[in-house]
């Protein structure tokens, strides 16, 4: 068994992101088997990593936001004159203000955990918490993403079977999906991965054109009755997995 950088181990164990781990280690807030460690130190995977109370308090204070992103906003940084979805996180757009009051400090370090195309709408997660980001978009993420997809065109004979399993994008086979018809022009997709414009490209491969796409769920967290363009804080009892 080889030793691994402690920050990498902390990320793999879901304690925090590697960047956060380095910051905690630099402040002397991380112990391995009861011993304070330094930047660049390594440990075995079976050793016990613990966080100081200061690091734990900082993690607890971090917020995660659920936004119903409208069409026309980009998920991350501004692109070609389009505004980032994060600009919608303002006090006047908060849904259900009784649970937690908006603070401007909640915008610092707030980043999208997963893309939603500019011409798509629905559930977008923005978070200050590296643990949640890793859970949603890490390479080994098991979080389901559910979409309602309106389409035009005529699907190929075995197209529905191919959408469920059998398509390739960018030279890589896609993971099995769960795709079914809701009505004559609307499909439900449940994906376990998130390649760029994946659903639109999958549909094109079987003769369909996407004319509307809405993400309605990520894991156990649903969009529900959150209005378009409004946002809320992730509730204390909510978990994506």
UniProtKB/TrEMBL annotation:
Q: Which residues form the RNA-binding S4 domain?
A: 5-41
Domain named Pseudouridine synthase RsuA/RluA-like: residues: 64-204
Its UniProt entry gives the catalysed reaction(s) as:
uridine(35) in tRNA(Tyr) = pseudouridine(35) in tRNA(Tyr); uridine(2604) in 23S rRNA = pseudouridine(2604) in 23S rRNA
Q: Which UniProt keywords apply?
A: Isomerase, RNA-binding
Pfam families attached here? PseudoU_synth_2, S4
Q: So what EC number does this one have?
A: 5.4.99.21
- Indicate the enzyme's highest-level EC class: isomerase
The name on file for this protein is Dual-specificity RNA pseudouridine synthase RluF
Biological source species: Advenella mandrilli
């Amino acid at each position: 068994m080889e030793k691994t950088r402690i920050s990498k181990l902390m990320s793999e164990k879901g304690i925090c992101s590697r960047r956060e781990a380095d910051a905690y280690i630099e402040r002397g807030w991380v112990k391995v088997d009861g011993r304070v460690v330094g930047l660049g130190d390594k440990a075995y995977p079976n050793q016990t990593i613990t966080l100081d109370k200061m690091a734990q308090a900082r993690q607890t204070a971090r917020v995660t936001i659920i936004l119903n992103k409208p069409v026309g906003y980009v998920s991350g940084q501004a692109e070609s004159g389009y505004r980032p979805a994060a600009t919608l996180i303002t006090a006047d757009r908060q849904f259900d203000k009784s649970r937690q009051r908006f603070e401007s400090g909640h915008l610092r370090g707030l980043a999208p955990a997963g893309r939603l195309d500019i011409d798509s709408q629905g559930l977008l997660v923005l978070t200050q918490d590296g643990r949640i980001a890793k859970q949603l978009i890490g390479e080994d993420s098991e979080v389901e993403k559910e979409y309602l997809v309106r389409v035009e065109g005529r699907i190929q004979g075995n197209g529905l079977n191919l959408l469920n399993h059998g398509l390739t994008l960018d030279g890589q086979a896609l993971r099995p999906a769960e795709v079914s018809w809701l009505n004559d022009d609307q499909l439900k997709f449940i994906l376990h991965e998130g390649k760029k414009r994946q659903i639109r490209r999958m549909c094109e491969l079987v003769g369909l054109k996407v004319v509307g796409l809405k993400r309605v769920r990520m894991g156990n967290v649903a969009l529900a009755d959150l209005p378009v363009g409004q946002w809320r804080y992730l509730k204390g009892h909510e978990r994506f997995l």
